[in-house]
Write a structure and sequence with these properties.
By secondary structure, this protein is mainly beta. 7% of the residues lie in helices and 40% in strands. Strands 1, 2, 3, 4, 5, 6, 7 and 8 form an eight-stranded antiparallel sheet that branches. Strand 5 and strand 6 form a beta hairpin.
Length: 224
């Protein structure tokens, strides 16, 4: 807690802040997430002195649901600086805060890329919720800590990010090379048929029977 009114009610606690986002390019994106903070009570033992202070020993819990822009500045392939600004609603889940209220957070940090998908880094954020801790006035509370005043606190810690890189663009298609037309087929080979051993009977027009095989082969060649 960073203002006097908050410090009169709670002490430094812990925070978990899961988020998801989408980067439209290397520099600008949109991020939304949850902010859960848990703060121990001041435990100044006012319970017996101040009526209605039955939650003095309870931890104060706040859950925020926010969304807003994220601006990044890559530094080479290894580092990235970023700032975020998000607005939304906060809900007090118990302790000194138990109502719904609008609010926002501002912050930033840097990431170190361990692998193409995994980054680790440090972050810091300032949160403001438009709701006041109850009761507004505490016995023994100094003047500059008197309420009501909006709750605001700072969180800082280690961050872990898993990224889904944009798929690489497919390579351009290989240029089409015009192919030369196929070479013309060679002209058909001319063959000669020479008939040997084809004889006629003496002084007649009758072809002898032993020439039949030669003539049949000649017919087959002519048909092909």
């Amino acid at each position: 807690p960073i203002n006097g009114n908050d410090r009169a009610h709670v002490k430094t606690g812990g925070s978990v802040e899961p988020y998801v986002g989408l980067m439209f390019n290397d520099y600008i994106g949109l991020q939304g997430g949850l902010d859960y903070s848990l703060q121990p009570p001041d435990n100044n033992h006012r319970r017996g002195l101040q009526p209605g202070l039955d939650n003095e020993s309870k931890y104060t819990q706040v859950l925020g649901i926010t969304v807003g822009p994220r601006i990044e500045q890559p530094i080479g392939d290894l580092f990235a600086l970023y700032v975020v600004g998000q607005g939304g609603m906060y809900k007090g889940l118990g302790g000194r805060l138990n109502q719904w209220a609008p609010g926002f957070s501002l912050g930033g940090g840097f990431d170190v890329n361990v692998t193409p998908n995994i980054s680790v880094g440090l972050f810091g954020r300032w949160h403001l919720a438009y709701m006041s801790p109850h009761p507004y006035f505490l016995i023994g509370q100094v003047q500059d800590q008197q309420g009501p005043a909006d709750a605001n606190w700072v969180t800082a810690g280690l961050g872990l990010k898993w990224s889904f890189p944009h798929p690489a663009a497919p390579p351009p298609p290989a240029p089409v090379v015009a192919q030369a037309p196929p070479a013309p087929l060679p002209p058909p080979k001319k063959e000669k048929i020479v008939l040997r051993g084809v004889h006629f009977d003496f002084d007649k027009s009758n072809i002898r029977s032993d020439a039949r095989v030669i003539l049949d082969e000649a017919v087959n060649i002519l048909k092909e």
